[in-house]
Amino acid sequence: MASNRNLLVLPGDGIGPEVMNEVRKIIAWMGKKRAVGFDIKEDVVGGAALDKHGVPLSDDAMKTALEADAVLFGSVGGPKWDNVEFNKKPERGLLRLRKEMDLFANLRPAKVFDALIDASSLKPEIVKGLIAKRPFMSITDVNAYLLGQKLTQAQATELYGKTFVHVNLNTGTSEEIQLIPGAGARMAHEFEEYRPWKSWAQFDKEIGKYVAQPEVARLKQYVFIPISLNTATDEDILSIPGAGQRMVREFKEYRPWKTKAQFEKEIGKYVGAAETQRLWRYVVIQ
Predict the structure, then answer these.
(1) Predicted local confidence at residue 1, as pLDDT
(2) Count of C-beta atoms within a 10 Å radius of residue 271
(3) 36 belongs to a structural domain
(4) How many domains does the structure of the chain reveal?
């Protein structure tokens, strides 16, 4: 009889523990009905790990993950941890798992099921339109679409507290910056004054002159500093939303990067034109 498979269960935060409870029922059913055995270990990740260990993923949990045959991951994050330091955000636990386990697939289904579409606070036709028009290249494009669907600016701004197209700190317009919830003309001025932005330490220092650190951390969620294609580390590349180990390999393989046309040609071999343009927003060639 084959030996049991080793599973690591990482429920995480939010709905994660609830989902993993259901997964355990399936595992038990497999053992009973299909004679498929599993040895299960469980640990914490994300906000739960931050509360327990002070980091979003402990070294012991990472070691167990590397030794396991599979890792079952729930979810991470929540309002409780919105204002923690950037390098300790719950999502950093997921980034570490992806990096050290050499994972490249990052599947994020966005199909709108008719039975669930009314669960959104937006009208069904607006939700479907947002999905169909992805990826948006800037938050102003999103704003124009929503206002075109007869939403008021106040309604659109309320939505931006939950979903947002990140603003480039070095090129974002005043209009884009002022769409960041709670930013306003003052932050638009400060964001532009300290260009070029080169690091998050610089952002903490300069914006920290005007607002407290919790507010600095909140503003970080809406912006990004482009990374250098020719010198970026693995961690830098993985900080791009939706990028995984596959993009880490491809970004590094084609160095030195010299032109946007080269980027479109090489990265376009692996993803579509729209996704290539979305990734281009987060990088620079120096």
Answers:
(1) 41
(2) 16
(3) yes
(4) 3
**Torsion, Cα of 34, 35, 39, 43 (10° steps):** 20
Work out the burial of residue 180: count CB atoms within 10 Å of its CB; fewer than 13 is exposed, 13-18 middle, 19 or more buried.
buried
Residue 218 belongs to a domain? no
Share in percent of the chain as helix, strand, coil (round to 5): 50, 10, 40
Nearest to 227 by CA among 247, 205, 204, 206: 247
State pLDDT tens for residues 243-270. 878 888 899 999 999 999 999 999 999 8
pLDDT digits (tens, 9 = 90+) for 24-51: 999 888 888 877 788 999 999 999 999 9
Whether 194 is in a domain gets the answer: no
Contact 157, 181 (CB under 8 A): yes
Q: What range does the domain containing 38 cover? A: 5-100
Could you tell me if residue 54 is left (phi over 0), alpha (psi between -120 and 50 degrees) or otherwise beta? left
Q: Is residue 124 part of a domain?
A: yes
Domain's final residue, options 148, 163, 178 = 163
For 272, other C-beta atoms within 10 Å of its C-beta total 10
Asked if residue 115 has pLDDT above 70, the reply is no
Check whether residue 58 and residue 86 sit in a common domain. yes
